[in-house]
Design goal:
Blueprint (H helix, E strand, L loop, with lengths): L6 E12 L2 E12 L3 E5 L6 H8 L7 E6 L4 H9 L2 E4 L11 H11 L4 H14 L15 H12 L6 E5 L7 H16 L3 E6 L2 H7 L2 E6 L2 E6 L1 H8 L3 E6 L5 H8 L5 E5 L2 E6 L2 H10 L6 E6 L2 H9 L6
Parallel strand pairs: 3-7, 3-8, 5-6, 6-7
Antiparallel strand pairs: 1-2, 1-4, 8-9, 10-12, 10-13, 11-12
Helix pairs in contact: 3-4, 5-6, 8-11
Length: 311
């Protein structure tokens, strides 16, 4: 068995074109069984196009792709039967109840009525929706609908779960509850592949990830590896009234390995935030406020893509 044969997803030189537009430009990806793998990047980076090829709903334009050891263009139905898919937009039937959404979806996979009834009970408990079992979907909150969408994707006990922007549009409480459900799936051995442009989400959920920009992979590794490779140990944030940060830039530019200029602040990338802050004060720079923090994936993103998080 080759290394590629041991991967649940293996892509080599994968390309997706839409007319003259090349959305995915020859990427190489390998996802191991049992890991949580992420595609990180801004809108338009090629993340969703890649996920649709893996989900066997969009044919590749060039390159090689194997999912669960099979070719999506030849074995699409067999692969889809073993996948769970959480699309970016919920596709629930709003006129059915929570329970009915799960039971009807289970029947698409050929499961018996007894099986789908039992699975619906299990999945409603997993998604913390048991008390809403007989409620129609339409009045549910966004977080509840997202949890129901994830529960529905598990009705066929998938080996591989694909999640496209799983927490987009949710408030912080709903996001954290959803993260907790995904942790449970990871510990149960389900392989997760997710796309996100939320840096904290990728850092929380992913064992390993790739950063995409312009249809290409620009970095790969664990969150800790990427931070160590592309950023410094600490970041000193100097906040100013809008526009005043540029006046301070030439004064502090030599105090850090790298300086990012944002609309209301300067980010100084440094090994020692306290020492850099003392040097800032020695140069008579007086920001409105300061913060010393550890580097995050957001800092890696700024380094690699050179623009704000959401285009």
């Amino acid at each position: 068995m080759t290394a590629a044969d041991s991967l649940l997803v293996h892509a080599s030189g994968l390309v997706k074109r839409f007319g003259d537009v090349e959305a995915v430009r020859g990427i190489d990806v390998g996802v191991r069984r049992g890991e949580a793998f992420g595609f990180l990047g801004p809108n338009g980076a090629g993340k969703s196009s890649t996920m649709r090829m893996i989900a066997c709903v969009s044919p590749r334009s060039a390159g090689e792709l194997r999912v669960l050891g099979m070719d999506p263009q030849r074995d699409g139905p067999r692969i889809r039967a073993r996948l769970g898919v959480v699309p970016q937009q919920d596709t629930l039937d709003n006129e059915l109840t929570v329970r009915q959404n799960l039971q009807v979806y289970g029947r698409y996979f050929g499961l018996s009525r007894d099986t789908v009834r039992r699975k619906a009970v299990e999945l409603m408990e997993f998604a913390q929706l048991s008390d809403r079992a007989e409620d129609q979907v339409e009045p549910l909150s966004g977080g509840m609908k997202r949890r129901l969408t994830i529960a529905r994707s598990l009705v066929n006990d998938p080996e591989l779960l694909l999640l496209d922007e799983p927490t987009i549009g949710l408030d912080p409480q709903a996001r954290h509850l959803l993260w907790d459900r995904l942790y449970q799936l990871r510990h149960a051995g389900v392989t997760l592949i997710l796309t996100t442009h939320y840096m904290d989400e990728a850092e929380q959920l992913c064992d390993r990830l790739v950063v995409m920009d312009g249809g290409r992979i620009v970095a790969e590794g664990s969150p800790a590896e990427l931070i160590a490779r592309y950023s410094t140990r600490e970041v000193l944030e100097l906040r100013f009234a809008p526009g005043h940060q540029r006046d301070a830039l030439p004064v502090v530019a030599t105090l850090a390995d790298r300086v990012e200029v944002l609309p209301d602040r300067l980010l100084l990338y440094t090994a020692d935030g306290e020492a850099s802050l003392a040097a800032v004060h020695e140069r008579d720079v007086r920001p409105a406020s300061t913060l010393i923090r550890r580097s995050t994936l957001e800092d890696v993103f700024l380094r690699l893509t050179g623009r704000s998080l959401v285009d």
